[in-house]
Amino acid sequence: MELNLSEIPTRSIRCIVKLGGAAITRKNELEEIHDENLEAVACQLRQAMTEGSAPSKVIGMDWSKRPGSSEIACDVDDLGDQDSSEFSKFVVVHGAGSFGHFQASRSGVHKGGLEKPIVKAGFVATRISVTNLNLEIVRALAREGIPTIGMSPFSCGWTTSKRDVASADLSTVAKTIVSGFVPVLHGDAVLDNILGCTILSGDVIIRHLADHLKPEYVVFLTDVYGVFDRPPSENDAVLLKEIAVGEDGSWKVVNPVMDLTNKKVQTSVAAHDTTGGMETKIAEAAMIAKLGIDVYIVKAATPHSQRALNGELRESVPDDWLGTIIRFSK
């Protein structure tokens, strides 16, 4: 695995953010973006990245036509008098939501078997879908003045071995960050050394990035307020506000205090979700926390997500904050 990360000082990466597919798309509507949520998330990210130093006017960077518009929005004339905005170093990874999962599950891409025509066709169809979503997210963030660069794992040399990351050219990510851009990666269909192909989830990507980039903290933005002891749609579901991870990677709920172990936490996975849903998210978050990096799982486009993105929870957590913190505990 080629890594050339020497240009990035340890912990100079402030935050890695996961935009959950269920939060930024309408997961029950095929390939439909949740525009209101995505716009709100983009605004919150800009506020967090600029740390209060944002210019009075946002200079958009999406200079392409939008559906339903006959003109190109271009603020080139305003750039001459605009001071350069200082963005703290963030990396964004997003899930697929209603993009990609249908194509992958219908064709069995996640199970491998590229020699089968339906799997090969599904591989192509899945990548068309997820890269289309990636472009729309890059454009949404760019409209908020965030200098985003879309980066597909397949095109950047990410491969797996039985679904675990086998190789990843993170030097491309590093150079992008050092050059002042914000990389936007996504869950993708990739080649697998054993299976032939599979789906590399955004949660696995974040864990791998966190291991090598060592951010100060990681934020998972979801469509619910955090991790619950059962599917949050059920009556009496309890929000788990803090989960402690031990040196061996095992975890337990410490707030609220309850007679509960990790084996009793129930999660639900949509029938078309090929990446494991909340169960995978908790497992990957626990592995990140084991590195000494706090992880916040919080509902997107809320005041609670803004606090998490701003890093306000690192010193103390207000009683009225709704979300789940997963952190290392010896």
Give the secondary structure arrangement, pairings included:
Layout: E1 15-19, H1 21-24, H2 35-50, H3 76-79, E2 90-94, H4 101-107, H5 117-143, E3 148-150, E4 159-161, E5 164-167, H6 170-178, E6 182-186, E7 188-192, E8 196-200, H7 202-213, E9 217-222, E10 227-228, E11 239-240, E12 242-245, E13 251-255, H8 277-289, E14 294-299, H9 303-310, E15 324-328
Parallel strand pairs: 1-2, 1-9, 2-6, 3-6, 9-14, 12-15
Antiparallel strand pairs: 4-5, 7-8, 10-11, 12-13, 14-15
Helix pairs in contact: 2-5, 2-9, 4-5, 7-8
Low-confidence runs: 267-276
Helix content: 25-40%
Please summarize the sheet with the most strands.
9 strands, mixed
Q: Could you please say which CATH topology of the domain at 15-50 and 86-223 and 296-316 applies here?
A: Carbamate kinase
Helix tally equals 9
Number of strands: 15
Distance between the termini: 31 Å
Let me know the average pLDDT: 88
SS strand fraction: 15-25%
Structural class: alpha/beta
Binding site for substrate: 96, 101, 202
Keywords: ATP-binding, Isoprene biosynthesis, Kinase, Nucleotide-binding, Transferase
Family: Belongs to the isopentenyl phosphate kinase family.
Protein name: Isopentenyl phosphate kinase
Question: How is this structure best described in words?
Answer:
With 330 residues, the protein is of the alpha/beta class. It is built from nine helices and 15 strands. A hairpin with a 2-residue loop joins strand 4 (159-161) and strand 5. Helix 2 crosses helix 5 (117-143) and helix 4 (101-107) packs antiparallel against helix 5 (117-143). The two termini are 31 Å apart.
